[in-house]
## 1
Amino acid sequence: MIDLRTEYLGLKLDNPMVPSSSPLTRELDTVKQLEDAGASAVILPSLFEEAVEKEQKQLERYVHFQALGHYEAESYQPMPEDYSSELDNYLEHITEVKKHIDIPVIASLNGISRTGWIEYGKEMQEAGADALELNVYYIATDPRKSSEDIEALYLELLSDLLSHVSIPVAMKLSSQFSSLPNMVQKLQQAGAQGVVLFNRFYQPDINLETLEINPELQLSDPSEALLRIRWIALLRNWTQMSIAATGGLHHADEILKALLAGADVTYLCSVLLQKGPAYLSTLKEQIIAWMEEKEYESVVQMKGSVSQACAIDPSAYEHSNYYLALSNYRSKMNNA
Ligand SMILES: Cc1cc2nc3c(=O)[nH]c(=O)nc-3n(C[C@H](O)[C@H](O)[C@H](O)COP(=O)(O)O)c2cc1C
């Protein structure tokens, strides 16, 4: 009997398959389907700083017009009677999900500025979240800001959040740091219990007809997994934090490779949006079949067994292979 259990952020999980933030974890019904199909935990969609700020501005306007008595003002929009805020809705979702499922529930905060929104982490904890994910979706566009400035921002946000909560916190990161191992080490020192590698940045596209810029959300494809697998393999022996792999995990193959590289859990999003929650049980069967064939007894035994420190050729994860990869391509062409 293969033992699929793993541990993530101190949470004991039945297996490493975790549906990540997406519309599937926004609805209680689909969360239940995910649990039934074998999810070991769920990450709820993020509470967005942007949405919270927008709402706060609306509220301020409302209070302002109330005070002036300008009910007829053109831009005045009455608040609906049954109004509940983004935060209220989010907290209610945590409570509902916790009431109906047995697996751990991880809430998520998305934003960058050091304003009051980060305090919402405390309310998420009180609503029952087992852990928090801090998703800093940040594109550095200001040339006056150095990489140190940006890293400091991440660390300050993390410290702020940690000062409000006692549940574990993981940081969802982009791959774009000058020295990712250094950044990961700083996050560990600052108290993070896990890193989620990597955020996907959605690329705006130019519409050639209208010349407008459209935000394009495209689902991932499996080729994106290799970047994650490489970095997890490189980082595994440098950090004691939990590592989650996210991005391009579509088949049992990518999930197995991420675990072999050293991930504690594997997040699934695009593939579940395409194939539905039930696909988790197919993935589970395929993972077990491969482990049986290769005589692995447990996920714990398998985790990190092909990380850089354990790989047959550790340099294969590093630059030294760049030249070899290019040369091999040339020699393949010559032999064709
Ligand atoms: C429609 C959609 C909504 C998402 N919403 C969130 C979100 O609210 N917060 C977040 O951190 N990531 C969000 N993500 C990112 C996913 O959780 C995941 O990290 C990313 O898509 C990479 O995994 P994949 O290749 O399995 O899709 C979203 C992705 C999609 C496609």
## 2
Amino acid sequence: MIYFEKSQPAPVCLAIEKAKPSSENYKCGTVLQRLNTDFERKCYICESKNITNVNVEHFRPHKGDRNLMFDWNNLFLACQHCNNIKLGNYEDLIDCTNEAANIEGRILLYLEVFPMEVVGVSVFELEMAKETETTVALLHAVYNGTTPLKQIESSNLRNAILEDLLDFETCLERFYDNRGSEKHKKWILGKIKIHLSKSSAFTAFKRQIVRDDANYLADFESFFD
Ligand SMILES: [Zn+2]
């Protein structure tokens, strides 16, 4: 999970739909386009990019509460896999659209490949806050699966992460390989910059690889947008 800035003000249609007693249309007007742009076409939970099963997710489950149903700040973009796992099961999560909540400074994600391919989730807090605990549980569930069906989906998700991380690691290796020309090095640097931008898939994992190495951090931290 990484920080996303939610554009303001809210699409006007939300207040109009809320005022209609029987309407539950919170996907009105420009809502979908705005969410797609704000969340960089990514699921805010698993960071999959260009998702084919797009869901508009209520960060705080509305349970029929029209204030929460039509609250722009409560509408997030998620993939179906994550939305199905979250449903009403994980309340009180770290809000990744609140910069002050500092999601990237609190939760660390890494992919373990041996002995089993599994996503690890660590925290930087000595005393874990309730919202951190819930967010860790959700991320574990999303990346490693819950039911047998979800385990298959999560395994596909981890394969996508692995492929992306292998490409990123190859770029890092090539950047430090002195045999390449200056032109090639610049091109590789451009690729690294794209990998570390918030619009890339699985950015949290790649930024963690950079944070774990003092040289990488010195050379590439400026690419964290
Ligand atoms: Zn997802």
## 3
Amino acid sequence: MSDFSKRAPIALTDPTLRKNFRRAMDGLMAKRAAQFPDPEAWRTLRARGAAVRANALAKLPELLQRLEARCRDNGITVHWAETTAEANAIVLGILKAAGATKVIKGKSMVTEEMELNHHLIANGVTPMESDLGEYIIQLAGEAPSHIVMPCIHKNKVEIAHLFDERIEGCGYTEDVDALTAAARKALRGEFAAADAGISGVNFAVAETGTLVLIENEGNGRLSTTLPPLHIAVTGIEKVVENLDDVAPLLALLPRSATGQPITTYVNMISGPRKPDEKDGPTAVHLVLLDNGRSRVYDDAELRDTLRCIRCGACMNHCPVYTRVGGHSYKFVYPGPIGKILTPQIEGLDCAGDQPHASTLCNACVEVCPVEIPIADLLVRLRREAVRPSQSAAVKGGGSRGSLAETLGWAGWKLVYATPWLHRLVTKVMVRVGNLMPASAPLLKQWTGVRTKPRYQGKTLHELARDKGFDNE
Ligand code: SF4
């Protein structure tokens, strides 16, 4: 169980965490807004992004086959994994076959989903994260708290202490440039020593068999070119039809994610090193992971979830995420996208509380660059959690249903559909409601975090009649 309702209140009482998130999210929101100053241009670009992703999903089976064929033409070995366990076994098998024991990793949320690092370590392979944020949380033994900025929950003082403890010869400094230089120095040797590089994929182009990877630190390029073996791991939904489709997504992703017009590096990987080339890996593998995505795909409404390009803008604007941070969600994908994706991947029996961790304010929907109707999907999942639909698209549907709740809503419906009963119940409630203690079992969930409202002693109809309105 995700226990969001237990973790969130703890996070809310952590002033450092609240401050770190508030400062970071305010900055990201301002930077993103500055990148889209013209509402009309934003709407047009966003509609293009949404259309590209919708088109890719509409043709997903065909595009995946085309991607596999083009990648093979290019010399990339393609593997299919239905589960994370299969994907882990495939990656480990490739590494073992190559005799690799040291791996350098670029940033990849799918490998977080697979818990690949644990699997590698348990099988004698040492993974080293090379993205600065991922490197920091690896040193700290933590999980990412954001899909784009994994260590956004930490401030420079916390990182200074961590580096002082964990990086030999670094010493204590709060100078950001010095901290970055210390990480760079520690990582340089790792790139050179690694037997293999593992990366994610932002977009996989079916037409050309190209793997597009964007990043700011150059670590992605080093991880995918310096070691003799490169393994790219991605979810099956990351495919796009052709190179033209990449352009609007590139115009949307960095601007939505970090408020940059474009990332420092845009890598387009189209195969292993050719005989006349001086660098690059001699073998490239692509692992395509399903892990429940096909099931999501089968439902016409829930399928929109798979449009996501993992920009994180929905998190940066979410009034819940920005206050409780990513670790409160427990799962790899936090915030609004996590609240719709995680229950579909993990099942509502295990993550059924996630869709409820939302005010349905629609802030995420307004900034999503590919127009995912997150609020509608949250409502759909809430419904599935208590009353599963025929499609059985979501594992664990109905697991949050209870007889008490069903009877409660049936009673509510009867009262509101029967005028005389509604009059009677409201008359009684406004007179005796104040006698109910805030700690009464029926009210506790509401009053535990809110002040109990005071009843006026008269119904609205009675108050209106007192003012001279005859409303019966
Ligand atoms: S749901 Fe939309 S806003 Fe959120 S990460 Fe995905 S693409 Fe970005």
## 4
Amino acid sequence: MDDYIQIKHSQIDFYHKIPLFHKTEENEYLLYKEKGEPIAESRVKTHTHPPLFILTNDKRAAAKELQEALNIDLAREIASKGMKTVKVILGRIVKEALEDPCPATLDALPETIEIFFAGYAKNSELLKAMAIVASGSSLIVDHTVNVLAITMRFCFCDQLGEDRSKKIGLAALLHDIGTSEISKTILEAQRKLTDAEFDTYKTHPLKGYEIITGCGTFDPMAAEVALEHHERIDGSGYPMSATNLSFESQLIGLINSYEPLTYRDKDFRKARSPFDSLQLIKQEVLGGKFDKRIFRDLCSCMTS
Ligand SMILES: [Fe+2]
Ligand SMILES: [Fe+2]
């Protein structure tokens, strides 16, 4: 017997290639939409669909189709300069990747970076605004989107060149992919983690490294950044207390620390301005945890 998985209502209109099913009162699954057909647009808009299902066997194909469709939406929104919506769509792309980091979801990410890069190469003001405007939630998804936005802004400011910027952007997008294997109780705890919980949390860099290398399609630098973004050049970081870190690991590590200070605060205090956040990080730079030159460049790009 076939197995079925219910899909989210918000995703219904993305599935063209795969068939959708509905469930009768007798718990029978009947075909709702043929393979290869779009769902009637008018019905999507009026929310008249019953709960819909896909075949479990189509799960990967569905994930791929969803990520591709989100990339198309992303390109459209970037073109129309809808900054808030761009962040929402990027959030959905990251969320799908974090929920199920498989080739179907991860393979669409380089395309996401291409679109992001092409859009912002034409409009750097938009990129600047996106790196500063908060998206307002404490989820790891928003953190990832913000880290990506700040990283891309840094790459543009520092004129790192197209190829390198895209690679670094992809590494930013994937840096916390290992958290997909950490429980939500730990990730979304609105309190200080216990020692045991923190130990579990600290396994996400290695898990991320394994997921990315396991894909076999990404630049090894992306895996290295996932592994090293919590390391510090004075050896005070984790998981290996490494001191010899690549530029990319140091950059994304620095932005990873800066981002939560700007956008939110674990103790529920008000989020800080970029300037105040940079002042706080400065103490750590002077303490020898981060490279001074990278910090200086981040300051000039975030306050210019
Ligand atoms: Fe992390
Ligand atoms: Fe992070």
